[in-house]
Structures are given as C-alpha cells and as structure tokens.
Structure of Methionine aminopeptidase:
Amino acid sequence: MVISTEEELAKLKDIGRICGLAMQSMADAMEPGMTTLEMDMIGRKVLEDNGAQSAPEFCYQFPGATCISVNEEVAHGIPGARIIKAGDLVNIDVSAVKDGFFGDTGSSFAVPPVRRDIERLCRDGKRAMWTGLQQIKSGRPLADIGNAIGAFAKKNRYTLITNLASHGIGRSLHEEPTELATWPDKDETRIMTEGMVFTVEPFLSMGAYWAEDGDDDPWTLFSDPSAPTVQFEHTVVATKNGPLILTLSE
C-alpha cells in the first residue's frame, strides 16, 4: 500500500497502536505456568476491546487470535495447552484489522532465568530490526534493508532465516511489496516510494537458515537446522525523513 490521504495514515496508526498494545499486554502478563492459550486470550481481549479483529483468523482461519511460538518453533505457533516454563524463548506475533486497515508486529522474549547467550540473542535480534529500520527513506533501494541486516548478522556471528520475508501491508495483511528480504538479495531492485507501507521483520538465529513445516499441524514452522531464533517486527511507512513506525504501543 502507498498512503495517499491523512485519513488512511490515521487509520493505519490506530490499528498499529492496537497491535503493539496487544503484544505488550501479552508480554507483560507472561509468566511460568501460563499456557499459550491463556496468553492468546489476553491478546484477543485487547483487540476486541479496541474494535479490532485478529488478522490471521480473518484472512486465513488460523486457530488463534495471535501466533505464539516457543523455543524450537520459529513462527506461526498455535496457542493451546503448551505451558510456558522458566528459560523458554517465546515469540509473540500480533496482526489485526480495523476499519479495513491492517497492522503487524512481533517480538521475542526470554522467560527468566535466561542464559547469557539467549539474552544476547534477544538484544541483538532487536538491534537487527532497528538496523533495517534505519535504512528506510523514500528514494532508497529496498535492498538496503536486507544488506544492512545481513552485515549486522555476519559481524555478530549469527545466521538469518531466509524463507520468511517482510511484506507490504495496509489494505490487506500481505500485499506489495511482496517477499521483502531481510537478508542480502542481489535480485532486489525495487525502490522505496513516499508513503509505502511494509513490515521489517528479520529472523536472527544462532545457526538456522530455514523455517520448515512440522508434522503435527499445517501452521507451525521450525528452525532448520534446529537453533534458537528470534523475530522482531514493526510496520512502517517510508517517508523522505525516514521510517514512520506505526506499531509502537504508546
């Protein structure tokens, strides 16, 4: 989507704020002994209380309001009876729709007590996302995002999942620009235009390069080779002054 009116921007800011609020509410409530379904119910209530609807349910009939992925799960984990335990690495991904406009955000959290390497991974996963966000400016190549994140990962001895891409968003959950790489991609030649709306969501890993389907359900994806992996995501608008981040909870 490319924003053309102030009304469109206002509605995107509204749904973005709601997504950020839902994710943060889930993270603040998370503690050992909770099930992922209990966490999901917290997110669902925030969405519904603010007049929004789960995008995975709305678009794909996903069996949950949010995606909650634990440890070996990289993405699209189904909320259910799984119990959160001390030391778990948990990713919360919230996308929603309101008034015909979509937002999408995600973060990874480690449940204390936390191993030092996992604590560093979470810190650097967020840094990788911000490294990508800092490349955003209308008129610049989209490839700058993946190149910068790739350089950060290499310098800090991480790998990147290279089959889970960022994407355009706005009037639908996934739209142009499609398949926006958060890793170096020599075939990426598109340019950021003023008002372009998309996500930035690198998957930083301690050894995995790919997300693979599992055997138990058609949704959950697992790291390959198996390794701790984090994801951090914001929905943004490209402007001449840099990125306008839509999914902050404040």
In short: The helical segments are 6-29, 36-49, 55-60, 116-133, 143-155. Residues 6-245 form a domain with the Creatine Amidinohydrolase fold (CATH 3.90.230.10). The chain has five helices and 15 strands. The CA atoms of residues 66 and 86 lie 21 Å apart.
